[in-house]
Design brief:
Largest sheet: 6 strands, antiparallel
Helix content: under 10%
Shape: globular
Radius of gyration: 18 Å
């Protein structure tokens, strides 16, 4: 089992801060440290903080496991299997990926192997409910990341990364796009409508909302590294996408890694994994600074009192104390 630092007063640290704009120091103290709170995972992903209980959940995608971590108790297995309940080997990334908590307090999970978005209550007995597993009768590729809105709807991405070998051809695919989808609030009969809202991205990955829930951010994770922004209309449809932040100049500087998971803070700044580790971008799309992690970095989430950013990076789960509160 992977190792947790447990209830130590001092944790090992990795990475460094790189200031690009003076405003960066308003968000992170210049001497802020990235602490490693647990390590030894195959590929850590999808962190989410559960306020009712005060603990962190995150996925190890290849291990088909969701782990639980607390400062006092350390690390434990929360759910296994987490994303594939079938028989035999499915793929190298069969487990859950992105996680979030919806307004009902349920754990919402993107499940690669079972090719669905699920909801699981955390405050009462009961198993999972499938929110969506197909579009027009065709199974999704491998739902990757999800965000919940206050009106009871969800947006999620569906790239091919969790499919079996041959993921980039049509052998295992049923839908012909790598889409961004919307799951509607429950209709009168309790059913939900699934709508394809973005169909022209090559590898849509992480998703996040602006604090006013009027903008959806989507990470493009292939070699064309950029963050997209879409206006969310009152009916849940999206306006024309625009490049919010272009990460290709960072790649030309020799930084490695694509955009993956992202979150926003209450001021609208975007904290996104990307080239070199993690980038912090203003609401206007200006790069403020970076956290160089030294390893491929997958996702992030706000926790504790809202000022701690938890980061999943390769084999590590980390945290850094900030001067802002997350949305």
């Amino acid at each position: 089992m992977p190792l947790a630092a447990g209830a130590q007063s001092v944790y090992p640290t990795i990475g460094k801060l790189v200031t690009v704009d003076a405003k960066f120091s308003e968000l992170l103290a210049p001497d802020a440290k990235v602490e490693v709170i647990a390590s030894g995972f195959v590929w850590s992903e999808g962190p989410v903080w559960v306020k009712e209980g005060g603990y962190l959940l995150f996925s190890d995608v290849p291990e088909n496991t969701i782990y639980r971590w607390t400062e006092k108790e350390g690390l434990s297995v929360f759910l296994k299997p987490s994303g594939y309940t079938g028989l035999g080997h499915y793929s190298d990334e069969r487990g859950s990926n992105g996680l979030t908590i919806d307004p009902q307090g349920r754990l919402i999970a993107c499940e690669h192997g079972d090719r669905r978005v699920s909801a699981m209550p955390l405050n009462r007995m009961g198993g999972k409910q499938t929110l969506a597993d197909n579009y027009q009768g065709k199974r999704f590729n491998s739902p990757n990341d999800v965000v919940a809105l206050s009106d009871g709807s969800y947006f999620f991405t569906d790239p091919p990364y969790g499919l079996p070998e041959g993921q980039f051809d049509q052998k295992n695919r049923e839908v012909d796009v790598y889409g961004v989808y919307r799951i509607s609030p429950p209709q009168a009969d309790g059913s939900r409508k699934v709508t394809l809202v973005v169909s022209d991205l090559q590898r849509p990955n992480g998703v996040a909302l602006s604090p006013d829930e009027k903008t959806l951010y989507v990470a493009q994770s292939n070699e064309d590294a950029f963050l997209m922004a879409y206006d969310i209309r009152s009916d849940g449809t999206l306006g024309k996408g625009r490049i919010f932040f272009d990460g290709r100049p960072l790649l030309k500087q020799g930084l490695t890694g694509g955009f993956d998971g992202l979150k926003t803070d209450r001021s609208g700044n975007v904290w996104s994994t990307g080239p070199g580790g993690l980038v912090v971008v203003s609401p206007q799309g200006k790069l403020l600074g970076r956290i160089e992690m030294g390893v491929a970095t997958a996702n992030c989430a706000w926790g504790d009192d809202g000022t701690t950013l938890y980061i999943t990076a390769d084999m590590y789960v980390c945290r850094v104390r900030t001067r802002v509160k997350g949305f």
